[in-house]
Amino acid sequence: MSSAAEQEAVQRARVHGRPEDGRTTAAGSNGGRGARARQAPARTVWPGAPTPLGARFRVGPDGVAGTNFALWAGGAEAVELCLFDTDDTDDSTDRADGTGGGGSGRTVETRCPLTELTHEIWHGFLPGVLPGQRYGFRVHGRWDPWTGARFNAAKLLLDPYARAVDAGAGDDYGALPPEVYGHVRDWPQQHVADTVRDDRDSAPYVPKGVVVHDDAPDDEWCDDRRPKTPWADSVIYELHVRGFTRLHPGVPEHLRGTYAGLAHPAAIDHLVRLGVTAVELLPVHQFAHEDHLLRRGLRNYWGYNSIGYFAPHAAYAASGTRGQQVGEFRRMVRALHEAGIEVILDVVYNHTAEAGELGPMLSLKGIDNRGYYRLQGDARRYADYTGCGNTLHVVQPHVLRLITDSLRYWVTEMGVDGFRFDLAAALARSFHDVDMLSPFLAVIAQDPVLRRVKLIAEPWDVGSGGYQVGAFPPLWTEWNDRYRGAVRDFWRGALPDVRDLGYRLSGSSDLYAWGGRRPYASVNFVTAHDGFTLRDLVTYERKHNEANGEGNRDGADDNRSWNCGVEGETDDPDVAALRRRQLRNLMTTLLLSTGVPMLVAGDEMGRTQGGSNNAYCQDNEISWVDWEQRAEPGWRELLALTSRLIALRHRHPVLRRRSFFSGRAHSADGLRDLAWFTARGTEMTEADWYAPAATLGMYLSGRDIPGRDAHGVPVTDDSFLAVLHTAERPVDFVLPGPPWAAAYEVLVDTSLEEQGEAPGALLAAGTAVRVDARSVLLLRAVPGDAEAGAGAG
């Protein structure tokens, strides 16, 4: 909370025309980018403090308001703080291309040497510098790429701790300007280009930090209440902030594609009706666009190219980029929390947007290249475990501090509830190998803030030994791609037997039943942002990434998909009906499986990317959610089924178990908590598991659920039988008799387009039920002492 002195100081400065939070005028039509900055006389710099890092507005000595700046730069010889303001008295042109002017003013750069050095942290306090001030750093030191030193004071560098960023590199350009590179990008001898220093000023072309007020006003944040949904009760919904509302007809046009758009009641209403408990947002840290995309007229859409780990991506803000994005993000989180929905961020701490030795110099590369990045034996080159040109050196204490400070900031000050770590194996590497006792994992495990939030690992990277599914320690859940592969293969008829499928449906105990881990250590998913959408999974067998401009060479070739006999969209009604049935099969399988289900935005209503399985650079209708799909009967019914299955999952604890099944009988009648059946109604034998099979029955007993509720009462539930049948012909499945059930009530039949036709049918145990070709039948087991017709709903 702001002190009275701070508030008074800000108000006093506003009266005298100094920068203010959210109201500072941008320099010209381009926010100062592309402008040739005029240097102003140096300002007074007081010693300040080395902590906290970054720019912190506060009241300094003698009650004077200002901002403390602190930057770790281990190998630097000198550091200059650069402040950027607009000189409104200058009517000359303000852009490098000669356009602009008209009284809008020219950008003025004030360079302030930071002479205080404490434990490799350069720091100083500048009185009168208030929220809304744009800034950056110039770091002096040796240019010696052969030893990994790439200091270049001609390059303006973004503060790694900047809480807000004004614009981003490449936003207004058809290619990254050569000035943003630390080396001469276009040097004739490209094999040594990275060793030739570029002395042109990059300030007009790069993103700049913005000083923000650290504390949120009382009426914005302090009464926020986190949902704190238990892992076992969670249903995750992966979405893109921009793509989710960009075409939403219920969101005002000026809010579409923004944090405010996601916070709009029309957007939240869909999430609530669907029943998901958490949104997993694709990267919202400030990111930059790659040069090769800009040259093709494209932009980085997914955002896995981070450059600012504390700043909400400015382009997703409807309210402005001079600090307003921070408040807008907080209001979005609060709105989601009020609806009972948690916010999980997809975070990219494994690499940055600076790429390899031929990449741009935007921040860490110029602050201390050797200190922030893993380098090879030849220190000119970067160790690349990410496939993106560089890897952050997480073993270094200051890098680990940067990451953990960022994580704590998003939890404590921005209100988020958890994180999904992109290429988490890269973070778990010690010096070379993946190490589950690595500093990163050890710090997370003992941190009093971070160990209490949701932690999801993408448990692999592209380096040797990087595939670590099932290996992360307790506290962590993992994206389980073994689940994705098994379910896709089963429904396309490619599994040699059902052993792997049995493990995946029941919580993947072969991967996670160790060290106190639980079934919810497995995040089950069939689709994710990378790869086919659910609809494309049953429509295409080959990727169609031509729009990316890479000759369709990008993206995975092994999609484990089946197009139902025709590649691409078709008017054939039989093929279209089969595809919709396959979608119902996949969605039903996902939501009945033990573990934490994750859906991708739009899959519940038939979103398509036209066969693209790598839409990372498609900020257009290819990637955006098409809300008109809801009006089409086939997709409307899929949405209704998805909502109904999620509601069923929420009502029944047997579908969201907190402990693994034992498979053993716990009573004299021989009833077990989990049993598997063949189409003959007999329990699966060892030989059955190894034989080819197109039909599998899974019985979940609600009588033997370990654990008690909040009042100490043992948890009990209905029991269910799910029959999965992937053959192209129907099968007569014999329903198991006592002790499993006396009768069965049909709840879901995916062979039916409209599920209103399915519930209510009561079938006697021991009789055969017709299971249609390629379908799932979900039945509630009715015990012998229950009245016929009792239903689960």
TrEMBL record:
The keyword Hydrolase belongs to this UniProt entry's keyword annotation: yes
Domain of life: Bacteria
Domain Glycosyl hydrolase family 13 catalytic: from-to ranges: 238-649
Location of region: Disordered: 1-54, 87-109, 545-570
Pfam families (UniProt xref): Alpha-amylase (PF00128), CBM_48 (PF02922)
Database matches in PANTHER family: GLYCOGEN DEBRANCHING ENZYME
The protein's name: Glycogen debranching protein GlgX
Organism encoding this protein: Streptomyces flavofungini
Gene this chain is encoded by: glgX
